Every structure is written in structure tokens, then in C-alpha cells.
Amino acid sequence: MDFKKYLNEQCLVVEQALARYMLPEEGGALANHIKAMRYSLFAGGKRIRPILALAAAKALHAPTEHLLPVACALECIHTYSLIHDDLPAMDDDDLRRGKPTCHVVFGEAEAILAGDGLLSFAFELLSHPEARQAIPPADQLRLINLIAQAIGPKGMVGGQSLDLAAEGQAIDFAHLRLIHGCKTGALITVSVQAGAIFGQASEEQFAALSRYGVQIGLAFQIIDDLLDVEGTTENLGKTAGADAQRHKATYPAFFGVTKTKVMAHEAVEAAIAALEIFDAQAEPLRALARYIYERNN
Amino acid sequence: MDFKKYLNEQCLVVEQALARYMLPEEGGALANHIKAMRYSLFAGGKRIRPILALAAAKALHAPTEHLLPVACALECIHTYSLIHDDLPAMDDDDLRRGKPTCHVVFGEAEAILAGDGLLSFAFELLSHPEARQAIPPADQLRLINLIAQAIGPKGMVGGQSLDLAAEGQAIDFAHLRLIHGCKTGALITVSVQAGAIFGQASEEQFAALSRYGVQIGLAFQIIDDLLDVEGTTENLGKTAGADAQRHKATYPAFFGVTKTKVMAHEAVEAAIAALEIFDAQAEPLRALARYIYERNN
């Protein structure tokens, strides 16, 4: 398959769906709030999470059009987490995707609210009637429950809390793995699971796709750690070297760059191995795993 | 009915359910995050929103036990909104329910995350399998969708954005009503609607309960404005006079105290009038409307 073409096409599908579902710009009283949400949502993200959901449904030979509200919700959740993580009280980052962060442009209060608004809106999309064209309501509820868990206190938000608490602390590798698993891994894994549910996966298929999701979540974060060491602010679109500056525990800090690369590669191989029960329709998932390893931003 | 006894009983029911569903305190890595959420959630709130949901279901002669996860979710959402509203970047309040606010005790970063965690956790509760003991999955999805809308960009979060933008600005009464309707009214109205859905309300009953919800939401906010003028920091448990200090538009600022009281009373009467199709099982809803008018904190 021509992966680059696939990625561009899928990215466009997601962009168009986001444009369709997201509140349009308006001149009314809410203009500023909507502008702040749209500013971060349409800042040129790679749309990895929605694309993973679409690719997982495809691996199960399922049509993906009615999955789009859910796919967009995953991107809204990811964007909200970036806006809040970048706040002065959190990581205090000025640059994201090569642009000034939301609070730099709209102020701190509106950035907090833009995040809150995107998170609430995500659940409006997750409960969207369109999903019922493809899956029974009980499955849609199961998906909402899985996503809420993945991004809540025992998932993404908890991971960010752990991450902040660990800054400048001596933590062991098990703790680093826990932080990564919660903060980054949980949303990536549940994105794959969303596609699995839309593809009406059997228990075996769901378990396999979940294993894939866990491993690419891991690979994603290891590479993120590496890019922070090896990348430049220009190609990353965010401040390079920020982890070291904040004395954050990372894979390279634990294992050095060479071994870290090996570990990322192993995670990608494990992800691809988890897909052995699937046929050629899972090729995009396999290619996405390799892409996560090879990406440079 | 003995309303005081009813209120105490219902409050206890909600407290016990919150204790049952909420993550327990733990000694592990997430200890601080969970502590921050629990600190604000168990700070002695009046539990008006969950009690409204329970009372609406009761007005429809429906059992309420399987509604409890949803009732608790409404309180989690309310608490998250208070935590974020109190942040230094927002209203910058140090006191809430007579205690130091979340960010004063746990720091700004953890307060943002405690709010985010509670909001995510609320949707875990809203999609809780227990609701399916009482209502079909499609109704549960409808409820999640209504709640997400009520608290999102066109509801509560949007209202807070409007409120911040209006500080110190000359706004007209229509705009004040819009702010109140979004910021406070939407969550109160949807709390009543949650009970209506659990009570399998007919279209006519749903419309009547929605009208009731809109009117008590209005009364609630008018009285809030009044209490800010007439109450003391001690009985309010939050800083009295904060609105005037922030040059916020309020009902008393527009109409004076006497006319404002009349308007609150009219809203309560309209709320009660909306319930005329219901029998004596709606008495708690009627009493709650009167209570909102008479409350002093």
C-alpha cells in the first residue's frame, strides 16, 4: 500500500468531519470561546487517534463513515489534553504544533474553558445518534464508558497528575511506565478499541486489537521521549529539550538513546505481531505502527 | 410533607451513593489526585442537582435506585465547574462552602486536573451499566447527549466564558439572562430532565418538567445574585459581595433588591405552575422550588 497517500487521505477525511461536526465560527457572544476551541483543534494535528480508530474498523472489514463522530471526539479529547497540559500552571509551554499555545493567544481563563468545552463536546459526539446506524446502543454505551475510563483519574488525567508529581523526583522504571501508560497510552489504546467496537469485533479480535493499541501507545511515548532529545523545536513544533529542562524521567534518561530506540522498535514489532489473526485489511494498522516508529515530529 | 426531613434524607442518599461510586482514598501514586477530587466533592454541598433528578423521577412514580450513578455524575459535574470557576485565572476565589478552595489546598495544576478528572469520571457514571436496569440503552444515550450539550460550549462552559467576558462591561438584560441560562440554568434543567428520562416521561410530561427546570434554574441564579448582595461570607461559605467587586452584571444591579425578589418569586410560581399535570408525587419538586426561593446559602 502507498502509506503516505493513505495517511493524507485519512487525515483529510478527519479534517472534513471535524469541520462538519465542530461548532462553526460565529459573530455572536460565544465567538471568542468557539474561536479558542477551533484555534487548537485546527492547528494541524496529525489526527493519529481518529485514524487509528478508522483503521481498526477497517481491519474488521467494517464501513467507517458512521464512526466519524467518535473519531472526531477522540481528536477533541486529545486537543483538550494538550491545551490544559500547556497551561502555565502545568507544563507552561508557549509553542504547540509550531504555533503559540491556546493560553498565549486567548489568555489562561479562556484556554481552561476551551479545554473544558472540547471535553464536554467530545461526549456530545460520542453519544451522537449517527453511531446507531452502525452499532447497537448498548455497544455505543460500552464505548463511552471505556473512553471515559481511559481519559479519567485512572487514565489520562491521572497520568498527567503523576507526571507533574514526578518532575525532579527520582522514580523507578515501573513508575515511568505507569505514567506513560496512563498519560499517553490509554487514549491511544481506546482509540483502537473504538474502531474494534464499530467493527463488531469478537472477543478474540478485541483482545488482539487492544494488545496492538497498548504496544503502539508505548512506542508512541518512547519515540516522543526520543524526539524531545533528538528533535529540534522547528521540526517538533513544540519546545525541544523540555523534558530534560524539567528533570522529567524519560526512556532515554533511563536507558540511553540507543537502547531506547531498540525498545521502541520492539514495541512496534509486538504491535504488529498482535495483528496476526487479521488479513490484508489490517495493513493500515501495521503501517501506522511502523510510522509511529519512524515519525520525526 | 416534612420537607426538611425529606431534604436531609435525600442528601444522605446522595452522599452514600457518592461514597460508593467515587474512587476511594488510596495510598498509591494517585493518592493526591484522588484526594483533591474528594476534597471538593465531599465539601458539604447541598446536592440540589442530584436531588432534583431523584424528585423528577419520583414525580413520575418511578423507582430511583438505578438513577443514582447519574445523580452522582450531576454532582461531579457541578463540583468540577466550581473548582475551575474558582481558579486564579477565573474568579480567583479562596473560599467555597466555608473551606479553602481546591487550588488553595492542592495547587493550581492539581485543581485543574481534579476538575478534569471529575468531568471525565462523570461520563463514566453516566454510561454506567446500572442505568440499564431502569431504562433502555437508547434512552441512556439520549440523556448523555442532553447532559453533554447542557454543560458544553453552548451551555455551562460557554456561560462561564460569557460571564468572564462580561465583567466590567455594560451588558443588557437579555445578555445577563443568556449568561445565567447557560452558566447555571442549563445544568439544573438537565438534572430535572435526567429524572424525567428515568421516569420514562411522555412528551407532554418531559416538556412540563423541562419548563419547571428552566424556571427553577432562573430562580436559583436570581437568588444567588441576591445572596451575594444580602448574605454574609459566613452563611454563604463563599466570599459575599464578590459580584459587585468584580463589576458583574446581576439582577439586583439591574432591578434593585425589591424587584429582584419579586422576579425570583415569579420564577418559582411559574415552576410550580408547570407541574399542574402531576399528582402528589410531585410534591418534593414543588417544595424544592419553594426552597430555592427561601434558601439563605
What features would you describe in this structure?
The first copy, chain A, has 297 residues and is mainly alpha-helical. Chain A has one domain (3-294): Farnesyl Diphosphate Synthase (Orthogonal Bundle), CATH 1.10.600.10. Helices cover 70% and strands 1% of the residues of chain A. Chain A is built from 14 helices and two strands; from the N terminus they run ααααββαααααααααα. A two-stranded antiparallel sheet of chain A has the order 1-2. In chain A, a hairpin with a 2-residue loop joins strand 1 and strand 2 (99-100). Chains A and B meet through helix 2, helix 6, helix 7 and helix 8 of A and helix 2, helix 6, helix 7 and helix 8 of B.
Annotation keywords:
14 helices; 2 strands; homodimer; Farnesyl Diphosphate Synthase; 297 residues; mainly alpha
Oligomer category: homodimer
- Biggest protein-protein contact in the assembly: A-B, 56 and 56 residues
**What helical percentage do the residues of chain A reach?**
over 70%
Strand order of the largest sheet of chain A: 1-2
Q: What's the CATH H-level superfamily name of chain A?
A: Farnesyl Diphosphate Synthase
Distance between the termini of chain A: 22 Å
CATH level-1 class of chain A: Mainly Alpha
What's the gyration radius of chain A in Å? 18 Å
- Which fold name corresponds to the CATH topology of chain A? Farnesyl Diphosphate Synthase
- Percent in strands of chain A: under 5%
Let me know the largest β-sheet of chain A: 2 strands, antiparallel
Number of strands of chain A: 2
Can you write the helix and strand succession of chain A as a string? HHHHEEHHHHHHHHHH
Cα shape of chain A: globular
Which runs of chain A of at least 5 residues are low in confidence (pLDDT < 50)?
A: none
How many structural domains can be distinguished in the coordinates of chain A? 1
What is the mean predicted local confidence, pLDDT of chain A?
94
Instruction: Please tally the helical runs of chain A, counting DSSP H or I stretches of 4 or more residues.
Output: 14
